Amino acid sequence: MNKRITYNYLEDYIDLLRSKGKYTFTLPKLREQFNLSEEALGKALQRLKRKKEAARIRKEFYVIVPPEYRSRGVLPPMLFITELMEFLNRHYYTALLSAAAIYGAAHQQPQEFYVITTKPVLFPINSDKIKINFCYKKQWGDVDIVDRKTDTGYLKVSSPELTALDLFYYHDRVGGFNRVATVLEELSESMHAEKLAETASRYGQIAIVQRLGFILDEILDQRSLASPLLAYLKTVKHYPVLLRPQKGESDTMVTGNEWKVVPNIDIETDL
């Protein structure tokens, strides 16, 4: 039988969690630990929130806010996203602009935290304190996911190579192709050519590989990164594609480049 523990104050429980290096708690866990009515527990939580010592992220999931983060009113997502996704029983990885920023490719610090997970759909977390944007895939390979150490544990992050491919796939979620190219220019410093080709071969979206290779080669002059992608494309069937996807085809699908990409938009980076 589990021993039930009753604390006089919820603050004592928060201090205990922090002493163990934990910065999250859930309402179901509080119910297990305290012999309190729902009304009393609710009032205790409201007191913590008023003091900015805790913040609710999603229904029944809370984060502890240490003094150094009180001014922003919430813990940074990278310090609790693993626990949140475990609570929601979802596989995940930190992705897109958030992953790129971890690798130092943050020309403009993203205002949202980007997570890729599986369906069913989760509503985005959007408040004046925090924004978490969820994108979706059916599956991915763990070989392309990196565990990064944080102050609260480990964070699952897409590799630089997977991050680059995802930026093209979800270009409309991150500000368009100019921003993708700008981030890619910095991200390329963390990428490895052979690993990029290996990741691309697992990605399952040939058009994305073509667009990525075209930008690396024709726009960013990163031929050393692009060459293994081109070698991979020569082993699979691929057809002319528009750089920027749109309904229907362009007036002409003549590409004029070995990537078979129709440059239907002009690309300008901010660097």
Which key terms come to mind for this protein?
271 residues; alpha+beta; Beta Polymerase, domain 2; four-stranded mixed beta sheet; 10 helices; disordered N terminus
- Helical stretch tally: 10
Mean pLDDT: 91
Beta-strand percentage range:
15-25%
| Shape type | elongated
* CATH level 1 class label of the largest domain: Alpha Beta
Oligomer: single chain
Instruction: Name the CATH architecture of the largest domain.
Output: 2-Layer Sandwich
Strands across the major sheet, in which order? 4-5-7-6
CATH fold topology of the largest domain: Beta Polymerase, domain 2
- Compute the number of structural domains: 2
End-to-end distance: 61 Å
Largest sheet: 4 strands, mixed
Count all strands and give the number. Answer: 11
Instruction: Report helical residue fraction.
Output: 25-40%
Helix and strand sequence: HEHHEEHEHEEEEEHHHHHEE
**Estimated radius of gyration:** 22 Å
Going by helix content, strand content and strand pairing, the class is alpha+beta
